[in-house]
Amino acid sequence: MMKAIEVLERLNAYSAAVLTQTVDTRKAGSDEKETSRVAFCFTATADVIKAASEWGADVLVTHEPTYHDHFDNFHDNAVAAAKRELLESTGMTVYRWHDHPHAAIPDVIHAGFLEASGLNGTLDGRYFILDGEMTAREIAKQIEQNCGIKHARIIGAADKPTKRVAMCLGACGDMVFDLLRNTDCETVIAGEICEWREGCFVRDAAQLGFNKSVILLGHCGSERDGMKYLTDIWNTICPEVPGKYFETGELYTYTEGDE
Q1: Pick the CATH number of 108-217 from 3.40.1390.30, 2.60.40.10, 3.20.20.70, 3.90.180.10
Q2: Which of 11, 97, 189, 192 has the most Cβ atoms closer than 10 angstroms to its Cβ?
Q3: How confident is the model at residue 74, as a pLDDT?
């Protein structure tokens, strides 16, 4: 049996990234907790916390913040207080693992998403080079089918073929806009963007005859498969302490229901 802090240390060692500043720190519980089971998730929602605790997890590793703030600063309100009370009642230790997987080579989150998507090609830094040309519509449809994303959205040139796709999963700030505006990048797979800025830029580009498109998957939809992938990695590098992935679930409720 290992201590909770050793889980984080082993993950960081796997990443091999050396970071002087990081949000990958403990968010709840004790570093010294004896650990026999590790749960992984994209976001530690209330339902995930309950399910992981019922499974018997001693440590919960989450990709995104627990307290709705990038640095997990605790803002004292009724929702945050209730969540902290729930976590304390489970006794689990919670770590965030966000910066190290993105700094790894290859990016762990990107690698997990691409494996789940079934897209064929080669990951080259931030770009995925497809084995053959595909349109944005074809790429989006395949991702929907293989990654369980209910609604992938396309902005811009949906039906023009491309081969080199930029990976901007999650929320990449200005990166999507910079790639589309300042480089020859044609297609970006993104989690979330600013609609009035890069969204409208890409729409204008397409209406003016440029082959520019963005495939929007939602933040969770674009990154959760990376945490599933991380669970498999954990069970390979540390089989004596089993890990299990817990699905965060869809953020949105859709008018057509759950079918």
Answers
A1: 3.40.1390.30
A2: 189
A3: 87
